[in-house]
Amino acid sequence: MIDILLKDMWSPIVFIIVSLLTALVAYMFYRIGDEGYKRTRHKGEPFISGNMPPKDPRMIHVGGDNVFWGFTHALRKYLDPLVKAHTGIINDYVYWMVITMALVLIYVYLLI
Amino acid sequence: MSMDLVSASPAFVLGIPLLFAFLTPLANRVSKDLRDAMFVIGLLLTALFVGIMAYEVYTSGSWIYVFGSEESRPTQTASYFRIMFAADGFSALASITMVITALGAGLYSFAYMEGNTGMEKFYTLFFLTLAGVMGMVLTADLFNLFVWFEVTSIASCGLVAFQNYKVKSVEAALKYMFISVLGGLFFLVSIGLLYGEYGVLNFFLLADALTGGMIDKVALSIIIVVFAMKASSVPMHMWAPDVYAESPGSVTPFIAITSLGSLFVLTRIIFTLFRYSFGVAAVGHLLIILGLLSMFVGISMALKQSDVKRLIAYLSVSQIGYMLMAIGVAFATLDSADYSSFGAMALEGGLFHMINDGVYKALLFLSAASVVYATGIGDLNKLGGLAHKMPYTTMFFLLGGLSIAGVPPLSGFSSKLLIYQSVYLYHPILAIIALVVSIITFALIGKIFYSAFLGPDQGLTRGEVPRSMLVAMGILTVVVILFSLFPNYVVAEIVVPAVEGLGVVA
Amino acid sequence: MNQWVIALPFITVALLISLGLYTILFKRNLIKMIMGLAIIQNGVNLFLVSLAYREGYAAPIWTSAPGEDMVLPTSHALTLTSIVIGLATTALMLSFVIMLKKHKGSVDSFKNRRCRE
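^ Those are the sequences you sent over. The predicted structure of the assembly is below.
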């Protein structure tokens, strides 16, 4: 049932045409809007908790580790041990490979 | 004559890069322009012969090329001396993936590596790596496979450490080399086991001879682990981020392609060699476990990265997980009626995802390399506002990024749709994990895009990268767009013959 | 008695491979680790050579063999290839270690971990 629904229905061309039609409808709604709207003084400036935006462009942009900070911070009990396991020592790389090989050998011996 | 050329095209696919690997240093004696021209000619000729081979496979079926013999089938006597190449749909798919990426990375190298001395050696290593991966995916012989495995390891490590004044590059190359050589030795042990037991090394003859005894089990386990390691599957992935992040930018997609090539080899070995001699479900489950681990750990580690190339490296580890899972599902259902209802779809999805992944990952790595090239910074905390000065790179990155995240209507979505759907029918939880990983991938692409490209212009770069680099990324972009627009055509013309080439027909 | 003689190379192989793995896993000096890799390599080569041996069989020279009974032919080619590849890989890895030593003055694997996490 599901393969009739998804696999045969999927066509990128149709998707693009429908997206363009949707964009056209959105544009028509946009045209309905009030043309007499005036630009205010602060339009286009970043909103930083009501403070005046700083002059230096580097202070405006919030990127890198600050993006999704909350998400990674909430998962720190899971992520920190994982990050710590990537020690960067060659011995550990080999150790992981030997361990995996031993586990796979046991798996194959027991289950096949 | 032309017929011979066509039937020998697998040999030329391998021979042209090998020939040009040693012609470029000679041409360098004459002039630098000739050397660069030789590089481009070599790449284009390789692409031409891949095209000839693929065309022949798609129009008149697959064949086996036996070196130094006019026979075109693996006889018992010939298998003692002869090396055989399988020219089937699977080889065609794999070598098309390799050659598209090699063209992109090669053209990109001109401007990117400008200013480095000893470029003729760079080209030699580049061609040797190309010959190595081509040999790996084309060969139908375990001994030969070992040789190409090692050629690829040595040459690609040379490429990683090419800028040997960078300590991190040398260190990453040493780690990669060390673990590859150890993997190669384990692989050699398994070759020895199989050869000592059955006396043949040819895939087809060995597949008939295997009985599924103790020795076969040990050999199977070693082969799975070694090639999963080379394909950067968790928990043996740790070399991958180091190498991808520290190799020269134009080389990175090429290293990614060698690990993708190992995944191709793993698929071929499992499907042609070990198919009839083992309980396929358990092997399939093993691959699914490796795939789930790769997806999950890869994406979790990517969350904590702040270096742009390292982040993409972890995304690539998690993409490998999708393919391993799809192959695992296909293999697990191989003996049951489920294969025709969704197992074949999983295999198609996995193979389609491989060719997509090779191309869009190359695009991503090259656009990340462009960022590093233009600004000299790889740290996302210090980047920002590049879209003002680098509009083309921004577009290329966005296209590659949306494709890796599986956003419709791009090519990544078409292949992931096949995977989601088939693994959902196998077990719903697999599809749910795959979807969650895909969503986090999208979020992380958003993180890179927002951090590096959006925001006010910070004056980090003077302008767009040189035109030849844009052309190289443009070629890959065109391929991504073509794959995105006509997925049904690609599946019918390229992926389905590859599935047939593996010897499984729904 | 004879069985033991045939088994002896394989016992040596097991010893060599475990010795090499021990060196790689528990030594911190990069050069010693590469030596461990070379020991494994030699163990594997010995494994391949001793695998080919069949008692009383002739050398695999196809044109002048006395009968059909010949030892396995490809093993020796495989071993030769493996030795050549081993030379190349060991030399390349040692040169990487020399570069690391020149740049940062350490061959300790615990100190050469600039790429991590």
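The first strand of chain B starts at residue 63 and ends at 66. The mean pLDDT of chain B is 90.

Shout if you want it in another format.
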